[in-house]
């Protein structure tokens, strides 16, 4: 009889430990779900976009170019410069990409594209669920 009581106590302790582990896993999963939302992704991308889009207005008709505009102009100038090279020289050099100009600009464009794809997929899923 004593051994049965001991076994029952042991099983209850194991059950409590297992319940704590399950609760911890559920909390971890909830935290992951909370932190990995589209809104969270938007908030992470927003400062990068704002930094690239920042420009100073001197007057209603005159303003400083934003970093994005400056970097895109630089990219276009280099791209056109490479295209104007003789064909033989062009074949030797690797293709120009925006990472060559500025990795922040290239990454922000990638992040924004992924975010827009995720938003469209979320809308499609919501439409399918409501049908």
Protein model, in words:
The structure is a single chain. The protein is mainly alpha-helical. The chain folds into 2 domains: 1-36; 37-130, no CATH class. It has 6 helices and no strands.
Largest sheet report: none
Instruction: Please report the total strand number as a whole number.
Output: 0
Instruction: Compute the number of structural domains.
Output: 2
**Low-confidence parts lasting 5 or more residues at pLDDT below 50?**
none
Summarize this, please?
This protein has 131 residues and is mainly α. It has helices spanning 2-35, 38-53, 67-83, 87-92, 98-101, 103-130.
Which terms would index this structure?
131 residues, mainly alpha, 6 helices
List the helices and strands and how they pair.
Layout: H1 2-35, H2 38-53, H3 67-83, H4 87-92, H5 98-101, H6 103-130
